[in-house]
Amino acid sequence: MKNLLIFLFLLISSNIVEAEDRIKVRLYTDVKIAEFVFTPMSNGYRLMTDDSAIIAIPLNKKVNISLEDLKVKIKFGDSLVGIYKKVQMLKNGFINSFQIQLIKPDKKPLNFDDGLIVSILDNSLIIINYINIDYYVAGVVEAEGGSRAPMEYFKTQAVLCRTYVLGHFYRHTDQGYNICDKVHCQVYRGKCRNSDILMAAIATRGMTLVDSSGNYILSAFHSNCGGQTVSSLDVWTKSMPYLRPVTDTFCRNSQNAKWDKKIPVNDWINYLKSNGCSINQENMNDYLTFKQPFRKSFYDVNGAQIPLKNFRTKFNLKSTFFETTTDGSYVLLTGRGHGHGVGMCQEGAMKMALSGYNYLQIIDFYFHGVKISYKQIPE
Questions:
Q1: Strand 35-42 and strand 97-104: pairing?
Q2: Phi, psi of 371 (to 5 degrees)
Q3: Helix/strand/coil percentages in the chain, nearest 5
Q4: What CA–CA distance (Å, rounded) separates 326 from 273?
């Protein structure tokens, strides 16, 4: 019944012109691809070549696509279709999906919605998913936030993800696409399998977040803030008035709220010395005992002013929200939170949703002075 409702909802919403709400997402961005198999999984497709020829691809028909002489080689089984500069897989029906199975290199198959564009870039096949933005948003929400959360959380994350992609719409246009599928943009692993997430993406269709000047905000989020988010100025040295510190009591008992780590004392001391600290036997204990009852920006011991984000990078810490004591020959770090701490705390937002807050209230809690705006994909 739920899948039927989704289908009807999509059907009713289809009055928006398809080309106007689709984006180009590069798949397998960090992979040098020499060969893969394309298989229609729902409805058939049409193969359009660079000479405008149209060839039908029936449901479940496997299409072998490989790199040959810096062109795209297409085969149906053992039969050569042709070799082209670029090909497109155009969908036949309203709801279409396909599977990609990388052969060289070998990777597990993944499913995707809508259409596909294949061309050549840097001596590799470049695979671009030409997809409805709501399907893309649903896929990102599932990849970035998981599939076990309340509907109001899914709606919140959907608005943030949509804001990000429209705010970075031209990031990769010089390479022929809008957004990549990695952390550099937003993590995207293909077709959303959770119907609640898809419903959340559709329910928030067109919604984005803008600042007081009407510009897209930086819709930052992280796993867990440890009880207090942090200003964008402290992490990225850029002040954004809507990304201010927030005391968050919702996430304090969540999965990623606490962590600890041991670092050899010599490694700790050597790092501090390399950052200008004058350490001797008399003052060493000062540098081994660091307190942070509330979030700080700097390691501020005996006049030292070392950005805590540098410690996170150097020692691969889950967050900058930590305190230190000694444990024999080790410095024991007791930390809170997971991630950079800017913007929405995902585990806090999930708890808020479970506690009865709606997605607008969650957004208002983590982002100061922003408003909802209905934005179209740029022409």
A1: antiparallel
A2: -140, 160
A3: 25, 30, 40
A4: 18
CB 185 within 8 A of CB 27: no
Which helix (H) or strand (E) is 346 found in, with range? helix 346-354
Q: What pLDDT digit, counting tens, does each position of 216-253 carry?
A: 999 999 999 999 999 999 888 889 999 999 999 999 99
d(CA 36, CA 284): 58
| Cα three-residue angle 29-125-188, rounded to 5 degrees | 25
CB 36 within 8 A of CB 67: no
Distance CA 66, CA 102 (A): 10
d(CA 83, CA 72): 5
pLDDT 10s digits, 106-125: 999 999 999 999 999 999 99
The pTM for the full model equals 0.89
Token digits for 274? 């390399």
d(CA 91, CA 94): 8
Q: How many CB atoms lie within 10 A of CB 169?
A: 17
